[in-house]
UniProtKB/TrEMBL annotation:
It comes from the Bacteria. This is CinA family protein. Coiled coil: none annotated. Residues 10-161 form the CinA C-terminal domain. InterPro entries: CinA-like_C, CinA_C. SUPFAM superfamilies: CinA-like. NCBIfam families: PncC_domain. It comes from Thalassospira aquimaris.
Length: 165
């Protein structure tokens, strides 16, 4: 069900988080819960995964994790300011998380524009007592490839946040 590459990366991340006493929250749009689902597919994830927010709609982004309607209107859901607000909002609302990652993008095959092409994903990663980081990339491939690349990059950003401690 979940790609072997993703499961291997999730297992490594779970081990690192356990060793460092960190708990993760996610705020997902284009992955629809795949990041959280991949983490929880690994044995022992309950000591590392706090919660996941699937915020596919703008209304969910606003009501569940506090993304300002002004940001959504000014920049659109697929943007750096929204990715930042998503991870910071998830970290604030998650009861036990010390790190939160967010993803918002256009997985395709439709929905892209000249300024926001299919494959564009914005990421945010926030940690307690750490600086929030953002990143974006345009991934190649079909919907499956974009979502897989997004999950793997999200794991990488969480790993980088662990290095900040």
């Amino acid at each position: 069900m979940i790609d072997d590459d993703i499961l291997k990366a999730a297992s490594v991340l779970i081990t690192r988080c356990k060793a460092q006493g960190e708990m993760i929250a996610t705020a997902e749009s284009c992955t629809g819960g795949l990041i959280t689902g991949s983490l929880t597919a690994v044995d022992g994830s309950s000591s590392v995964v706090d919660c996941g927010f699937v915020t596919y709609s703008n209304e969910a982004k606003h009501h569940l994790i506090g993304v300002g309607n002004d940001l959504l209107e000014q920049f659109g859901a697929v943007s750096e300011p929204v990715a930042r607000a998503m991870c910071e909002g998830a970290l604030e609302r998650a009861p036990n998380a010390s790190i939160a990652v967010s993803v918002t993008g256009i997985a395709g095959p439709g929905g892209g524009t000249d300024t926001k092409p299919v494959g564009l994903v914005h990421f945010g990663c926030a940690g307690k007592d750490r600086s929030t980081v953002t990143y974006h990339e345009v991934f190649d491939g079909d919907r499956h490839a974009v979502r897989k690349a997004t999950v793997l990059k999200a794991f990488e950003l969480i790993s980088d946040m662990l290095d900040q401690k």
